[in-house]
Amino acid sequence: MTTAYEPGNADLMRQHHGDIIYEPSGFVRKIHRKDANIHQTIVNTYTDMWKADKKDATNREESIKNRREHAQIMTNAFYDIVTDFYEYGNPIINTQYPSRHIGWGESFHFARSYKGDTFEQSIKRHEQYLSLKLGLSRNSRTFDVGCGVGGPMREIVRLSGAHVTGINNNAYQIERCKTYSKKFGLESMTDFVKGDFTNIPRELYNRFDTAYALEATVHSPKLELVYGEVFRALKPGGLFATYEWVTTSKYDDNDADHRRIIHGIEEGNSIPKLSTYIQALDAAKKVGFEIVEYEDMAILDECHDPWYNTLKGKFSLTDFKMTRIGRWTTHKLVAVLELLGIAASGSTDVSSVLMNAADALVEGGETGIFTPMFFILLRKPKDA
């Protein structure tokens, strides 16, 4: 495993990302790096975690153990190299605020989609649903567990007026959070903590009325580690709402094709090991939570479109790059830019990881063995 990469090193972050931390720009500028060696080191740090599985993608126990032990390094490296690709993957352009990124530009998650919805409507509704379930208001202090670049947080603040504190262990994304909050006048309503959500600062214990997570806790080595810390952060009686990435009852661990798909999802999204939905519920109960309700929001009624349609894309001006052909075109563009020295060394490897991840996610959705939106509402007992 590469050891030169130091997650959280502010100097390295600025060398790697340059001034795009503060001034998000076009795709070519995003994937250009002033120090290509640093970028290659970070890419190697991530891909080295999966080399043992290349010949045998059966999630051997020693490989899982290694990824769990190095989960913080692995996930930091992952988001240092994919955040800018995720922002480019935004299929929507905001006509009211052309300079403002939305969709995957700010919100790195999927959403239940109703027929006739735009991508932006689905994403915002998915975020607003958490706010409503938690009963947030201007008097609420809530905790965003794994806040990314803060897109969901900003939507929830605008809807509810609540004060939200986000925690994230990736220095680059924390700086982007602060930049966006300043840009949109939300500094007084948001705080950010650079830290590990499986080991939060003690000063955050018993501080929050509510907490939420959007597809973030999957990066924890084990769910009970992050759930335990959320439990400690909540005041007695506080609610925690989360969307979890889990395998469903249709997943068969004895099916080689199922294992291949799930392993592809894990490798392409920095997941030490996916839990089953039963394991997620058990982890919550183990640390002391009461289960209020749960639902797989990927299960479709006649009024819904599949969540993975976003990754399949449509042949239109806005959605073409999300199609498989569009992703292939972007991948080849990145390869040419890297060959010409415009994109940093390792950019093509990153593109490959994300292409394979998208294919695995679509297969997981189509077979029904995986969901990225297993909704769980939990309560910390009042006498805890």
Automatic annotation (TrEMBL):
One of its GO terms (molecular function) is sterol 24-C-methyltransferase activity. The keyword Methyltransferase applies. Residues 92-381 form the SAM-dependent methyltransferase Erg6/SMT-type domain. SUPFAM superfamilies: S-adenosyl-L-methionine-dependent methyltransferases (SSF53335). GO terms for cellular component: endoplasmic reticulum. It holds the Pfam family Methyltransf_31. Keywords: Methyltransferase, S-adenosyl-L-methionine, Transferase. One of its GO terms (biological process) is ergosterol biosynthetic process. Belongs to the class I-like SAM-binding methyltransferase superfamily. Erg6/SMT family. This is 543_t:CDS:1. It comes from Paraglomus brasilianum.
